[in-house]
Amino acid sequence: DAIILSHVCEHLVHPSMVIEKLLGFLNKKGRLIIAVPNTAFYKYRLKLLKGDWTLYESGPFDKTHLHFYSYHSADNILGEQPQVTIRKIPGQLAVPLWPLRKLLPSFCKKIDAAFGRQFPNLVAQQVILVVEPSAPW
Q: pTM for the complete prediction?
């Protein structure tokens, strides 16, 4: 019914080839759900603007990442898949509202959602792709 690739594709040499093979295992109404870190998230942009290109043991800049995606480029993971539709979802929205998060959590969630709709590339920590068949697999 579903195959989930959560923070896997950025580590693969040829993610589109793996995805193409996995699509063949889904049933007629199956879904492929892919999550990748959004390297255009504001915290990561600030890190790079400061000139810090350090690779770490874990996280979005770990030593094993072969690809880097943003909200706008994440659907390129699929390569040419003509029989699918892709729904892109900004995940883990976080606008820099640190002092207010503990005082007004519901207000901050509304701000996160509003900014997430307008600026997903800036405030989404990850990108979620839901790959659905345009025609039966």
A: 0.89
